[in-house]
Amino acid sequence: MKRFLMVLLVVCLMFTIVVSGCSPTPADDLDTEEAGESIFRVTGPIMPKWDPAVGSDYAACVVLGNVFDSLVFPTADGGVEPWVAESWDISEDGLTWDFKIREDIYFHSGNHLTAHDVAYSMNRLLEIGEGYAYLFFEYIDSVEVLDDYNVRFNCKTSYGPLLNNLVRFYIVDQELLEANYADSGDYGDKGDYGKGYLLEHDAGSGPYIIDHVDTNISVSGVKFEDYWAGVDENNPDRFVVYASNDGVTVKTMMARQELESTDMWQTAENIDSMLASDDTFKLAYNYTGGGINLWLNHQKPPMDDKYVRECFGYLVDYAAVCETILPDSVQKKSVIPSNLLGYESVFDFEFNLDKAKAALEKSKYADTIKDMKLEFVWNSESPDREKVALMIQANAAKIGLNIEIVEHPWATIVANSADPKTSPMLTLTSITPDISDSGAQFVSMLRTKKVGTWENMNWVNDPELDKLIDHALTVVDIDERAEAYAEIQRYCGENIIFIPIAETPERLVYQSSYVDLDPKIPLQGFSFYLRDIKVYPERRK
Predict the structure, then answer these.
(1) CA distance 112 to 128
(2) Counting Cβ atoms within 10 Å, is residue 277 exposed (0-12), middle (13-18) or buried (19+)?
(3) Which of 137, 82, 135 is nearest to 435 (CA)?
C-alpha cells in the first residue's frame, strides 16, 4: 500500500510539473505582489512581433501601439489627430506631404526623436517590405529630411488614404538600431537592419518600455514615466502579453487573478462559464468592425468558378454563427465592415441548400465536383472556427460535396499564405481594420500580390479589380473616394470574391473589481491601449 501511495505521489508531482510547464504563468522575476499588483496581463494566440517593419497581426498591434509612437494617432470617431507630427501640409496635386515633428519627444534610450528618425523609419519599413509596408510602398517615392524637425514624403501618385494609414507608421530609434545591426543579414551593409535586436528589445518612444522577453512564452514592459504625452498614475505599472490563449488555461488564470483580461478569441462557452463563475467578471466590447470570412483560393480549382463560390455562400447557417457560435455578431454583407468609409451592402446570402445546389449546377464543375476532395483548413488557436468549418462540412455533405477538415496552427497558416500553391483552398479568417479608411482592406485582401499574406489568401488576381482599387486610392476628395469604394464592393458582390460571414465585436472578459477596461478606439489592437486602461490594486480581493 505504501509503495502504491509513493508511486501515486510521484505521478501526481510529474503531472503538476508538466502542466505548469505547458501553461503560461507569470515569470519568477515578475512577482506581482512585490510590484504592488499594478499590472495588466492578457493572452494572445502567438508571440507578438513588435518590430514595426515586421509585425501587423493582432498580437503585434497590442504591443506596437504601447511601445512605439505613430506619426498620427487614431481617434474614437475614425479620424486622426496630431501625434509625433504636430501639423502637416499637402500640396495641391497631393504628391507632397510635409510634416512638422514635435520637438519634445525622447526615445526610451534617451535619444531625441527627430525628422531623421522619421525618414529612417519609413525607409526601413519600405526596404524590409513586411508588416504594414503594404500601406505605403507602392505610393511613397522618397522621404526628405528638410531639417531636424521637418520631413517630406514625396508620393508617386496622389494617395487619398495616406493620412489615415499613418496611424500604422511607427517611429524607431535610428541611432539605437544602427548600433545593434547583426553583421550578417539580407540588407547589405545594414546586416539584419536591427531585426534581431527587436526580437528581445524595443526602440520606441511610446508609453511603455519592453523589459523582459521569455521567447515564445511572453513579453512584458513597464511604464515610461517620462512619456511626452503623459501617463496616468492608475495606468498599469507593468503589462504582460502571453503567447497562448488556451481556453482552460485562460479560465484558470482569470480565476486566480493571474490575468486582468481575456483575449478576443475565447469561445462563447468559455466566456459564459467564466461569467457564471464570478460576478466580478464583466464583458467589455470593442466594435472594431472585425469580421470572420470564408476565404476561397481562386487559384485552386474548383474555387476559380464563381458559381462554386456562390454555392458556399448558401452553405453557411448565419443565424447559428451570429447567435450561438459568435454571440453578439451580425451577418456581414460586404467585403468591408459597416463602420468603414464607403460601405455598401452587396451580399444577401442565406442558409439555403436548394440555392446552393442551383448555384453548383451552373458551375463548370457541376459534373465533377462531387468526386473532388475539398480541403478546409482551420486555425487551431481559434476553436470557434472549427465549429464553423464543421457546420459547413456537414451542410456541404447534404448536397454531395466532400470536405476534409484540416487543423493547422496559425503560424503554419501564415507561412503557407505566401504562395497560392500552399495557401489553403478553404479557410476562415478574422480581419479587423488596421485603419479607418477602407482602402487598406481592399489592398491587403484583394489586390494582386507576388508574395501573399494571411489577409489575401483568396488570391483573386483580377486585373479589373486591381484597376478599381488603384483608382480609388488616388481620389483625395472623401465623398468621391467613398463612391469609388462602393464600386469596388459592387464588383466583389457580382463576382462572389469571397463569403463574408459575420461582423464580430471583440468580447473581452475582465476583472471589473479592480480594472477599468472600456475600449475607445475601434481599430485592431487598441482594446489594450494601456493609457486608456486603469488598474486599482487596492480593490483586489
Answers:
(1) 24
(2) exposed
(3) 135
Please work out, in degrees rounded to the nearest 5, the angle formed at the alpha carbon of residue 327 by the alpha carbons of 351 and 322.
Answer: 15
Same domain, yes or no: 380 and 425: yes
Q: Which of 58, 69, 101 is nearest to 203 (CA)?
A: 69
The average pLDDT across 177-202 equals 95
- Name the amino acid, one letter, at 407: E
Helix (H), strand (E) at residue 409: none
The domain in which residue 143 lies consists of 69-173
Measured distance CA(315)–CA(294) in Å, rounded: 11
Residue 199 lies in a domain: no
Partners of 80 in beta bridges: 74
Considering the chain, what is the average pLDDT of its residues?
91
CA 93 to chain centre: 33
User: Model pTM?
Assistant: 0.80
φ, ψ (nearest 5 deg) of residue 378:
-125, 150
Three-state SS at 153:
strand
Separation CA 52–CA 128 (nearest Å): 10
- pLDDT at residue 36, rounded to an integer: 60
CA dist 495 and 478 (Å) reads 26
Tell me, yes or no, whether 210 and 329 share the same domain: no
**Looking at 24-33, 215-224, 293-302, which range is the least confident one?**
24-33
Number of domains in the chain: 3
CA distance readout (Å), 407 to 246, 390, 416: 15, 12, 13
Q: Are residues 523 and 453 in the same domain?
A: no
Cross-strand bridge partners of residue 55: none
One domain for residues 81 and 217: no
Specify whether the CB–CB gap between 476 and 484 falls below 8 A. Answer: no
Question: Does residue 348 sit in the same domain as residue 323?
Answer: yes
Q: What is the CATH number for 420?
A: 3.10.105.10
Q: What does the chain come to in residues?
A: 541
Q: Same domain, yes or no, for 447 and 365?
A: yes
Distances (CA, A) of 100 to 40, 185, 409: 34, 34, 44
Residue 11 confidence (pLDDT) above 70: no
Is 9 within a domain? no
Which residues make Cβ contacts (< 8 Å) with residue 454, sequence separation at least 6?
57, 413, 414, 417, 429
Residues 164 and 281 in one domain: no
